[in-house]
Write a structure and sequence with these properties.
Layout lengths: L2 H13 L3 H12 L3 H11 L6 E7 L5 H14 L4 E7 L13 H8 L4 E7 L4 H17 L4 E7 L3 H7 L4 E6 L5 H7 L2 H4 L2 E4 L7 H14 L12 E3 L8 H18 L1 H28 L1 H15 L5 H15 L7
Parallel strand pairs: 1-4, 1-5, 2-3, 2-4, 5-6, 6-7
Bound molecules: guanosine-5'-triphosphate and magnesium ion.
Length: 329
């Protein structure tokens, strides 16, 4: 079978609901194999329909527990749900999704739910690129809701947030989280802020504090959306219906103002840029002559014979001449 035929077969099996085929497809896409890239290019045109909801926040605030609740609620509406956890701690086991083991296990056996953990590795852009690709795959496979969990720590989250229609920032009382979140620029990317663990002391104060921070800082892309601050107890489901309706309202806002299209266009622009980086990297690492050309130019720079800009330009010219610009080359 040719690569294209293999890709078609794999996509067909994944669309048919074969869990192992879905896993194999996603793994190949994440690993950037030739098969994964061939399949991804075919699938891309069918993406752009899902509602992508980013859930971000500091470690242990209850993101996974909340995602379990939200996923359950969307399932009750009959919608297919994909869950992707960008997980720095457990590359293989998906451990971060097991914050609430029982509920997640119940979701995991539901054929209308697909859960996957994405190992963070490599450069900052790599995580965002992989997440963007996997979201597009789930989207194209017909998952109507994609929930994307990231630990809020900075640049990665900002990049991953850019592929979400709605970004929900989760904080909890008693940790000085709001100060961290402010520093990391997370409050600026939040469309909805949730104070989880509202069963604990200090939730009201934190919510009030966040509301006053939001009143002070008008966001650059503001078209009239003021991020609501909600309280939840993910552990028992309190506040989840309110969160769902806030997400709905934000979705309406995105549609009504055209802001959703603006975001999608910005995300696609970024995606092309990320793919260009990936293409250059793949060529450099796969083509031995390009690799040695790189080393040769670096040595010239080290010897003071060449400046880095000229070296980069020479390398770019060389890479362009190397082979026909097939994406998998
Ligand atoms: N009291 C209380 N505990 C909660 C609530 N929500 C979650 N928890 C608990 O908080 C702990 C962390 O929950 P997770 O859902 O794993 O949190 P997380 O943000 O996904 O954690 P990481 O993925 O490790 O960053 C678990 O023991 C949960 O049972 C809540 O509303 N109230
Ligand atoms: Mg988690």
């Amino acid at each position: 079978m040719s690569l294209e035929e293999q890709a078609v077969a794999l996509i067909g099996a994944a669309r048919g609901g074969d869990e192992r085929a879905i896993a194999r497809l996603l793994r190949n896409v994440e690993d950037e194999t030739d098969l994964g890239l061939a399949a991804w290019r075919r699938l891309f045109k069918d993406s752009g329909r899902a509602r992508v909801i980013g859930i971000t926040g500091p470690p242990g605030v209850g993101k996974s527990t909340l995602i379990g609740r939200v996923a359950r609620a969307y399932r009750d509406q009959g919608r297919k749900v994909g869950i992707l956890a960008v997980d720095p701690t457990s590359p293989l086991t998906g451990g971060a999704l097991l914050g609430d083991r029982i509920r997640m296990q119940e979701l995991a056996v539901d054929p209308g739910v697909y859960i996957r953990s994405l190992a963070t590795r490599g450069a900052v852009g790599g995580v965002a690129r992989a997440a963007a690709r996997l979201v597009a795959v789930l989207d194209a496979l017909g998952y109507e809701i994609v929930l994307l969990e990231t630990v809020g720590a900075g640049q990665d989250e900002v990049e991953v947030a850019a592929i979400s229609g709605t970004t929900v920032l989760i904080l909890m009382p008693g940790q000085g989280d709001e100060i961290q979140a402010l520093k990391a620029g997370l409050i600026e990317i939040a469309d909805i802020i949730v104070v989880n663990k509202a069963d604990r002391e200090g939730a009201d104060q934190l919510a009030a504090q966040l509301r006053s921070v939001l009143r002070l800082g008008a966001r650059p892309d503001d078209r009239g959306w003021v991020p609501p601050v909600l309280k939840t107890v993910a552990a028992d489901g309190t506040g989840i219906p309110e969160l769902l309706s806030a997400i709905d309202r934000h979705q309406d806002y995105l549609d009504r103002t055209g802001q959703g299209m603006v975001r999608r266009q910005a995300a696609l622009r970024k995606a092309v840029w990320r793919e260009l980086e990936a293409l250059l990297l793949r060529r450099l690492t796969r083509d031995p002559s390009a690799g040695s050309e790189f080393d040769r130019l670096v040595r010239q720079v080290e010897a003071g014979e060449l400046d880095p800009v000229t070296a980069a330009a020479a390398l770019l010219e060389r890479l362009a001449k190397l082979a026909p610009a097939r994406p998998e080359s």
